[in-house]
Amino acid sequence: MKNPENEHEELDADTRAIVRAAAELPNLKPTRDLWAGIAARIEAPVVALPVHRERAAPRVAPRVAPSWRRFAIAASLLVVATAGITVSVMKPSASRAGAVASDSVPSPSSVDLPSFVAVAQPVSLQTAEQTFDREIAAMRAVVDARRKELDPATVRVLEKNLKLIDAAISESKAALAKDPASAFLTELLAHAYDTKLQLLRGVASIPSGI
Amino acid sequence: MAVALRFEAVIEPVESPQDDVARAATGDRHAFERLYHKHVDRIFSLCTRMVGDSSRAEELTQDAFVRAWEKLNQFRGDSAFSTWLHRLAVNVVLNDRQTERRRRDKHDDSVEDVDTMAHGDVRSQPIPGLSIDLERAIAKLPPGAKKVFVLHDVEGFTHDEIGGMLGVTAGGCKAQLHRARMLLREALNA
Q1: Out of A25, A85, A102, closest to residue B154 by CB
Q2: How far is B23 from chain A (nearest CA, A)?
Q3: Which distant-in-sequence residues (6+ apart) come within 8 Å of B103 by Cβ?
Q4: How far apart are CA B97 and CA B60, in angstroms?
C-alpha cells in the first residue's frame, strides 16, 4: 500500500515535470506555406479607377472617350500591379486608406491621374476587359475556395449582388456595342467591373467563421 | 511626373521588427510578410494545440494573420507586437465557429470528457511511459481543459487573462488547469 505522503510527492513531481515540459514545447511548423493564402486575402492589386473628371474638356472634343482611356489605363495598371508592384490601395481599415505601401509609392488617393498616366501603357478596351475578367476570376477562385467557411447568409447576399452586377455589365456591354464611343457607358462598365471586384475582394477578406 | 514604383524583385533592405511593424501598419505587404515569417510557427503552434487539428490550425493561422493585417492600425505598441499578435490569434481560435461546432458535436466540458480522456482514448491505446508524447496527450484533452492548459502552461497567460478570454472566473480557470494536469499525468503514466 502506497504511502499517501509519497503519493503526494509523486503527484507534485509529475505536475512540475508536465508544467516544465509544456513550457519547453518546441514550435510546430505548418505542413505548407500559408503565406500564399494570406496574401491572396489581403492583396489589393487593382488600382482604383481615378476619380478625376476631365470636366474642363470642351464639349466639341472628339468622341474618343477620355473615360475609355481611364478604363484602359486602370486595366493596364492592373496588369502591372499583378506583376508585383507594391501598391496597397485597399487597406480594409479606413484609417489606413490612402496609406502608402512604401516610402516611394504614393497611394492612389493622393496621386493625380497624370502621374498614373505617365507609367501606364494604354491598352484596348477589349484587353482592359480581359484584364478585369482575369482579376475577377482570381478573386472568385479565392472566394469559392473559402465558400464552406463563410456564413450561408453572406454567400447568399454575395451571389445575389453578383447577379445584379453581372446584369449591369451585360447591359453596359450591349449598349456599348451600339454606341462604342459613349464615355458614359464606358464609365458605367468600368464602375460595374470595379464594383464586382471590390465585392469579391471584400468577401475574400472576411475572416472564417464570420 | 513619373511615379516611382518599386517592384518585388528589388532587394529589400534588412528591417528591424519594429520597423516592419510600423511599415506594415502603413500598408507595406513586404514588411507584413516578414512579420508573418517571423511569427508563423508560434501562431501555428498555438492554434494546433488549442484545436488539436493541424489542418484546421493552418486555416486559423491564416485567419489570424489576415485579422492582424486588418487590425494592425489599432496596435498602439503598448505591448510587444508578438504579444498582441498572440492575443489576437487566441481570439480568432476562441471565436472560431467551426471549432466550437466541433466541440459541441464531439464533446461537452462535462464529467464525460474526463472519463473519455482518462479511461477512453488514451487508455484504449496504451503506449508505455514516456513514449506517450505530451503533444498527443494535450490533443486528447477535453476542449475546455485543453484551452486553459495551453494558454496557461504553454503560452504563459495568467489565470485572470485566461478568465477574461474564456469568460470564466479565475477560480474556474484554476480548476480546469488542475484537471488538465491530472489528465495529462494519467495519460503520460499510462
Answers
A1: A25
A2: 7
A3: B143
A4: 11
Which A residues in the span 180-199 are in contact with B, Cβ-Cβ below 8 Å? none
Say whether A209 and B70 touch across the interface (CB within 8 A): no
Could you tell me which residue, B69 or A56, shows the higher pLDDT?
B69
Question: So what's the pLDDT on residue A65?
Answer: 45
CB within 8 Å: A25 and B45: yes
Q: DSSP code of A95? A: G
What average pLDDT does chain A have?
A: 66
Q: For residue B69, give the nearest of B39, B106, B111, B103 by alpha carbon.
A: B39
- Nearest CA to CA, how far is B143 from chain A (Å)? 17
User: Alpha-carbon distance B90 to B165, whole Å?
Assistant: 8
pLDDT of residue B104: 59
Burial of A140 from C-beta contacts in 10 A (0-12 / 13-18 / 19+): middle
Please give the pLDDT value at position A70: 59
Looking at this predicted complex, what is its ipTM?
0.72
Mutation choice for B interface testing from A15, A27, A151 by most B CBs within 10 A: A27
pLDDT digits (tens, 9 = 90+) for B162-176: 998 888 899 999 999
DSSP A92: S
Q: Are A39 and B29 in contact (CB under 8 A)?
A: yes
Closest CA to B188 of A16, A6, A28: A16
Instruction: Count Cβ neighbours within 10 Å for each residue of A61-85 and write b for 16 or more, e otherwise.
Output: eeeebbbbbbbbbbbbbbbbbeeeb
Residue bearing cell 505542413? A31
What is the grid cell recorded at A77? 495598371
Q: List, for residues B102-122, the tens digit of each pLDDT value.
A: 555 555 444 334 333 433 333
Which of the four pLDDT bands, split at 50, 70 and 90, describes residue A179?
Answer: confident
Segment B123-126 long-range contacts (CB within 8 Å, at least 24 positions apart): B123/B190, B126/B190
Q: Please check the confidence at residue A134 and state whether its pLDDT lies above 90.
A: no
